[in-house]
Amino acid sequence: MRTFLAICMVALCLPALAEQRVFYQPLNRDAGVTPAQWQQLWQATAAQGGTTLIVQWSAYGDSDFGGAQGWLANSLREARAQGLELVLGLYMDPAYYQRLQALDADGLSSYWKAQLGRSLSHYQQLRETWQLPVAGWYLPMELDDLHFRDASRRDALYRQLQAFNRQLDKPLHISAFSAGTLAPGVNGAWLDQLAGLGLTVWWQDGAGTGRLPPLVRQAYEHALPCRVGVVREAFRQVSAPGQSFHAEPAAPQLAGGCHAEAVFDVRYRPWAQGVLPQQ
User: Fold this and answer.
1) 244, pLDDT greater than 90
2) Residue-wise burial string across 265-278, b where 16 or more C-beta atoms lie within 10 A, e elsewhere
3) For the whole model, what pTM was predicted?
4) What CATH code would you report for 2-12+19-272?
5) 188 falls in which pLDDT band (50, 70, 90)?
6) Rounded CA separation 189/183 (Å)
């Protein structure tokens, strides 16, 4: 009871940031969160104006987080009970980023084809066994302008996502971040092309990772068409390159304007402190 009151007090004291869309990245360590804590967490998320929970993945490598009756599926049923719509993430290969670095154009295309096939199988399994009402599906393989700087790679990806999207029953969400390789205008045009497939495309603002200087990040953001949403990072990375990822909570830089906004991740928001273990 004291935990619930503490969360509510934190929520009431926070300014109205209108965090309508919030990401959640499931981790195996979250299995220890109790049903009562999940209820409190999603209640507090809704109290902050949350309407949509974007779940980054529902399977990560060999882990499916307990399956249809496991802790993740049950926690998401509770999120639905608290009024949150779900955009449910599909399958994520833990070696995705290493594979991006190692593959040439033909190898990357084949790899993406295989991973989309695995995500499609997982999508069908989710519909049959989890039976969660969802507003959309999220593909957790993030895009960047370094590994997709060549137009031929972007064209191959376009065709693959077009075919994949046609097989889903709800809109597909995908996100991208900027590494400073493509010019801002070219990057914006690329993401706009993907949005033209009917995808919900998100661009990560990079404020948490700090890979690019602020003025460079702003140039990329200003070049985005309005139909590309912006993910506001609510953390500051404190781990050095090559170390295991570690971050501290930070206020997301919500800006409003013509772009839809989402916040990454609920784990770093004040009302989740003491409930979700930190990375």
Assistant:
1) no
2) bbbbbbbbeebbee
3) 0.92
4) 3.20.20.80
5) very high
6) 10
